[in-house]
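Researcher: Please translate sequence to structure tokens.
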Amino acid sequence: WISAEFALGGVGFTQYATAAYTDNILDEFTYYGMDYLKDKYDFDYTAPSPDQILEPTQDLVNDLATEVNLNAMEQYESYPTMMEDHFGGSQRAGVVAAACGLTCSISTGNSNAGLNGWYLSMLMHKEGRSRLGFFGYDLQDQCGSANSLAMDSDRGLMGELRGPNYPNYAMKGEFQHTGGRY
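Model: Translation complete:
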């Protein structure tokens, strides 16, 4: 079942087992982001406090997501076995984007900052590697950034308002929405 999940690609779909499947690499990329936060913004993730939460600006999201994304893509280039272990562009893109999203949301306490960090990472990965997935299954990896600040009930609610009926773009083809349940 794991190979079937990863073959489909996508933003949410690949994340169901990615953390367990990709060894400690997601952790490594996220800790890089935490170290960057500590060095540049004096943000100590080991002792969270409302006083140190950073303002969720687009400039901050751009800075954090770009730094974490570029580091992760360099790591994949430096260690070809890691790239081989994480087969398929959508799996690598998902791991990198998760680290970017975590870094942005942990530092700001804002779920939309995390989503925008995720989608910025996806767009950077697409520009840097020409594609995210294979067989053209990379639309869902990019289609959320335009909706991340929309308040339409079927597109881009804030993370705190999304419920179980929030459309997962990657799963739409596999599991059609049926009366409020998947």
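Researcher: Any highlights?
Model: The radius of gyration is 16 Å.
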